[in-house]
Amino acid sequence: GGVGARPQPLHVVHIAVEMAPIAKVGGLGDVVTSLGRAVQDQGHMVEAILPCPSQCRCNLLTTTTPTPPHVVVTSCVVEGIRVFFVDPHNGFFHTDSVYGRNDDEMRFDFFCKAALEFLLQTQRQPDILHCHDWQTAHVAKAYWDDYHPFGLWKPNVVFTIHNMNYGQRKIGEAAYYSQKFTTVSPTYAAEVGGHPAIAGHGHKFMGILNGIDPELWDPAEDPWLPVPYGAANCEEGKAAARAELRRRLGMNGWEDKLLVAVVSRLTGQKGVPLIKHAAWRSRDRGGQFVLLGSAPDPRVQGEFNALAGELSHGGDAAFCFYYDEPLSHLIYAAADIVVVPSMFEPCGLTQMIAMRYGAVPVVRHTGGLRDTVFDVDNDKARAAWEVAGSTDPEADGPTAVNGFAFEGADAGGLDYALNRAIDAYYNDKAWFRGLQSRVMGHDVSWCRPAVQYVDLYYAAIKK
Ligand code: ADP
């Protein structure tokens, strides 16, 4: 088009097995919802197709019959996005959890075909089918082989890898059949780019950072906080949250005592030994430690039960081994430091939520943790360039850096970062409090990523 000509608004249909808050296991669920909303806010039409969760009650929309099992499609609006639920009457998705059955692959392949059948039979011709992780990778192949030649002609396929650790064969298939595919941070894209499932298709592949939903995670409007706050009254808001958290979890501690937190699934990916080490180090350095998270592996959970037994008495540590979204808000607000020592991390939302709530991230520099956390001592040049768009590390680095980072995978590595953070807290409280209110301003929104996705959608159509 000519100057000022605007490209056509897009019609994007996400096909996924998670979507917050109705079907959420991890970050994938948050991303489908918040990316969808961000793209919709830019004037595009976004819809989603999901397997019907067990307790879902919505209006019957249509009935389709792709293959023998009879499929019912219902629909409702979730967080402003029109969602279609595919519900085969053989009860494929009437399970307690999204994953974890030994017939997952067969069930999800069936879901992919049913989603395409729904689009065909309702004569929807979206511009983009956006699939997520191995569970919906099959959409790409099934679309080009079995639907594109037979009437569902318009869409092109974009595929996003949220975690490369699962379903690599399926991911490889989608990499081949999709017009563009992405993962959730530039550093993770570089880390997995050499994988055989991806290597031959690098020209279609890029990393786009996730954002967090600014309305869901907003300390200034958060109903779960005793005193909502912004950067200007960060200290006051966080002090009130600390007091409330201590009261709620039965902890001691004076108003200003250092509080270190971890909010995480407790799995190998998240750095279990380093999470335990952070608990000890925080206590040994005169601070307090709070953990919210649980381990699906009973052996790992046993280790944490033992740790809780050793650390909890005395009121300087609290362990909450369950899932509790409201409590997570209070913890992010209360925390001085949030530790994320992942062994690998495609993007990671925890460190971004922490920043939004004025908690200083201490992270292992892997995947998206590297792309979002800039070490106060070591990353001034990178932060000046990537955050402030400046080539002057001396002038712009100090205000663009936002946390503490380490490289190694051992306790010594974590200590290098955590001890510097704790030193800063004790030696220069004013600077540390200033850093806390400053990290609140770090851009963790979808603004930039949503524009990148929209550009990618147009590129996928052009081919
Ligand atoms: P992953 O998707 O690998 O679990 P992310 O950092 O991308 O890791 O996202 C984790 C999300 O789950 C964050 O929103 C975090 O606050 C939340 N979370 C993790 N464990 C719990 C818990 N026990 N209670 C409440 N929220 C949790």
What do you see in this structure?
The structure is a single chain. The chain has 17 helices and 15 strands. The protein is an alpha/beta fold and 463 residues long. The chain has two domains: 11-211 and 447-462, Glycogen Phosphorylase B (Rossmann fold, 3-Layer(aba) Sandwich), CATH 3.40.50; 234-439, Rossmann fold (3-Layer(aba) Sandwich). It has a nine-stranded mixed β-sheet with strand order 3-4-5-2-1-6-7-8-9, sandwiched between helices. α3 (138-147) packs across α4. The mean pLDDT is 93. Bound molecules: adenosine-5'-diphosphate (ADP). The site of adenosine-5'-diphosphate (ADP) has 16 residues, from α10 and α11.
Topology:
Blueprint: E1 11-15, H1 27-41, E2 45-51, E3 59-64, E4 71-78, E5 81-88, H2 104-121, E6 128-132, H3 138-147, E7 156-161, H4 168-177, E8 180-183, H5 186-192, H6 196-199, E9 205-207, H7 234-249, E10 259-263, H8 272-284, E11 288-292, H9 298-311, E12 317-320, H10 325-334, E13 337-340, H11 350-356, E14 360-364, H12 367-372, H13 380-386, H14 393-400, E15 404-406, H15 411-427, H16 429-439, H17 447-462
The structure holds adenosine-5'-diphosphate.
Adenosine-5'-diphosphate binds next to helix 10 and helix 11.
CATH topology of the largest domain: Rossmann fold
Morphology: globular
- CATH class of the largest domain, named Alpha Beta
- At the fourth CATH level, what is the homologous superfamily of the largest domain? Glycogen Phosphorylase B
| Fraction in helix | 40-55%
CATH architecture of the largest domain: 3-Layer(aba) Sandwich
Ligand inventory: adenosine-5'-diphosphate
Taking Cα atoms only, what radius of gyration do you get, to the nearest Å? 23 Å
Given as residue ranges, the uncertain stretches (5+ residues, pLDDT < 50) are none
| Count of separate structural domains | 2
Mean pLDDT: 93
Q: How far do the termini sit from each other?
A: 17 Å
